[in-house]
Design brief:
Blueprint lengths: L1 E4 L12 E3 L2 H8 L5 E3 L2 H15 L6 H12 L2 E6 L6 E6 L1 H12 L13 E3 L1 E10 L2 E11 L7 H77 L1
Parallel strand pairs: 4-8
Antiparallel strand pairs: 1-2, 1-3, 5-6, 7-8
Length: about 230
C-alpha cells in the first residue's frame, strides 16, 4: 500500500515521502496516528506541486550555495523539547524539523534529504552537516534544549549521558539472573523427565518376569492334573 508520510518515521522515510508499506502497518499504525495518509493520485499531484515550489528556493549553482554557507555559519538553531532527567527526549528532532526551522527562521530552503543526521534523541549541542550543491557543504549549529530550561555545560551533558548508560546496563544486568534461573529450571525439568523415564523402564523390566511366570503357570497345572488322572 502506498502512503504519503505526514511526519518523519524511523526506518520508513521523511515527511512528504511517498512510500510503500504493508497494508496492516498502514491501517493499524501509520493512519490512526496521523503519521501518513493514503497516496491518492490527487494528493500525490499536490505534493509534487509543493515540492516544485520549494525546489525553486534551493541553491541552483555554486554561488548561491556559497551564500547559504555564509548564512549558515552565522546561524544557531534552537529546539525546545520535552526531555527526561538524563537528557533523553520524549520524541526526536528530525531532518525535516531542521529544514522547517531553517526556512521559518532564516528563509533558507534546503533539501531535507541532504541534512545528514539521524533523528536527535538527546539534549545537547550539535553541528549538523548539510549538502547544498554538488561538493559544497555546510554545517549548522543546533542546540536541543530541555523545555522551559537551559542547556547545561558539555561536561554535565556527558555526565547525564553516562548516567543513562549506567542505568541501561544495570537494567540489562538485572535481567540476566532471570535468564540463568530459566536455564536452571529447564535443566531440573529435563533431569526429572529423565528420572521418570528410567523409573518406567525399571517397572517394565520388573513386570516382565511376573508375566512370564503367569503365562507358564497354566502349563504346570495342566501337567499336575494329568498326573492325578493317571493315578
Amino acid at each position: 500500500m502506498e502512503v504519503i508520510l505526514l511526519s518523519d518515521v524511523d526506518h520508513v522515510g521523511l515527511r512528504g515521502d511517498v512510500v510503500s508499506v504493508a497494508r496492516g502497518y498502514a491501517r493499524n499504525y501509520l493512519l490512526p496516528r496521523r503519521l501518513a495518509q493514503e497516496a491518492t493520485a490527487a494528493r500525490v499531484a499536490e505534493l509534487q506541486k509543493r515540492e516544485g515550489v520549494r525546489a525553486r528556493h534551493e541553491a541552483k549553482n555554486a554561488d548561491q550555495a556559497r551564500e547559504i554557507v555564509d548564512a549558515l555559519a552565522k546561524t544557531v538553531l534552537r529546539f525546545e523539547v520535552k526531555a527526561g532527567p538524563t537528557g533523553s527526549l520524549f520524541g526526536s528532532v528530525t531532518p525535516t524539523d531542521i529544514a522547517d526551522e531553517l526556512w521559518n527562521s532564516k528563509k533558507i530552503r534546503v533539501d531535507r534529504r541532504k541534512i545528514e543526521t539521524d533523528p536527535i534523541k538527546r539534549i545537547g549541542r550539535y553541528e549538523i552537516p548539510i549538502g547544498l550543491f554538488e561538493d559544497i557543504r555546510a554545517e549548522v549549529k543546533t542546540e536541543v534544549i530541555p523545555e522551559g530550561g537551559e542547556l547545561p555545560p558539555d561536561e554535565v551533558l556527558e555526565e547525564m549521558e553516562a548516567a543513562e548508560r549506567a542505568e541501561q546496563e544495570e537494567a540489562a544486568a538485572a535481567q540476566e539472573p532471570s535468564a540463568e534461573l530459566e536455564e536452571i529450571i529447564a535443566e531440573v525439568d529435563a533431569a526429572e523427565e529423565a528420572d521418570a523415564a528410567e523409573a518406567d523402564e525399571v517397572e517394565q523390566a520388573d513386570a516382565e518376569p511376573e508375566s512370564a511366570e503367569a503365562e507358564a503357570e497354566p502349563e504346570w497345572r495342566a501337567d499336575a492334573d494329568a498326573a492325578l488322572a493317571d493315578e
